[in-house]
Amino acid sequence: MDTPNLRLLILDDEPAVLDLLAAALEGQLIAERRIEITIRASRAMQALELARLTPPDLALVDLEMPEMGGLAFAKALLEQSETPPDVLIYSGHTDRMDVYEALESRIKGYILKGHESGIDQLYQALETVCSGGIWIAPEVSLSMYQKGLSKSFSQPSVLWKIPLTVREKEVLECFRQGLTQSQIAEDLELSFETVKTHLKNLREKSGCKNLQELRLKLSEN
């Protein structure tokens, strides 16, 4: 049986950005599923209506939308969906309280717009979110950590005091270097599901709520 495509909604009020994102993402393989862009919209209300007809699995949303902000749109989309999609916000800001509000609103990713590694970062974010994690752009994570926006991020790391298997250490080192789960699987010649299981175990052993918090703990060392 064929694996169903990942249905993606993209919302941005700039046509050039919509075209760029569509060209970069259509047909890409993320977490072993092929992306299919089912909704491209420049207006929030239009996107909500289309999402009622064709519910997306993922939504990529510009934070600075004119008629309805990206966070307000994301909340409305999640509330109207029987099976809520994973929502990722992208913005040009690293130090806004919007980041914290986004995480509290069940948004799974915060991507930095205009970053020099923007498309690669976007692929990593989608890979992480589609694998059950939460993605925050590294620059945003650093800003949050420095400003103390998340108390859990400011606790001393105990990760290196935890006994790990040889394989867990290998997976952890690859993850620390910024490799995606698919890249780790290829590098260590493991299945994607095995890597996913190792990261889940590492997250639980370290007491992290998600993979982004694990990444932050690694950066403390």
Which keywords apply here?
2 domains, Rossmann fold, 15% strand, 221 residues
Structural features, described:
The protein is of the alpha/beta class. The protein has 2 domains: 142 residues, 3-Layer(aba) Sandwich (Rossmann fold), CATH 3.40.50.2300; 66 residues, Winged helix-like DNA-binding domain superfamily/Winged helix DNA-binding domain (Arc Repressor Mutant, subunit A, Orthogonal Bundle). Helices cover 48% and strands 15% of the residues. The chain has 10 helices and 7 strands. A 7-stranded mixed sheet has the order 2-3-1-4-5-6-7, sandwiched between helices. Helix 4 links the parallel strand 5 and strand 6.
Brief digest:
The chain has 221 residues and is of the alpha/beta class.
Q: Which SSEs are present, and which pair or pack?
A:
Elements: E1 6-11, H1 15-25, E2 29-30, E3 33-41, H2 44-53, E4 58-62, H3 70-80, E5 86-91, H4 98-104, E6 109-112, H5 118-130, E7 135-136, H6 138-147, H7 166-176, H8 181-188, H9 192-206, H10 211-220
Parallel strand pairs: 1-3, 1-4, 4-5, 5-6, 6-7
Antiparallel strand pairs: 2-3
Helix pairs in contact: 2-3, 7-8, 7-9, 8-9
Mean pLDDT level: 82
Q: Low-confidence parts, pLDDT < 50 over ≥5 residues? A: 148-160
- Identify the CATH homologous superfamily of the largest domain: Response regulator
Shape type: globular
Distance between termini? 44 Å
Oligomer: single chain
Strand content: 15-25%
- How does CATH name the architecture of the largest domain? 3-Layer(aba) Sandwich
Total domains: 2
Order the strands across the largest sheet as they lie in space.
2-3-1-4-5-6-7
> What's the helix count?
10
Major beta sheet summary: 7 strands, mixed
Query: Would you tell me which CATH topology of the largest domain applies?
Result: Rossmann fold
Structural class: alpha/beta
**CATH class division of the largest domain:** Alpha Beta
Protein name: DNA-binding response regulator
Modified residues (4-aspartylphosphate): 62
Pfam families: GerE, Response_reg
GO molecular function: DNA binding
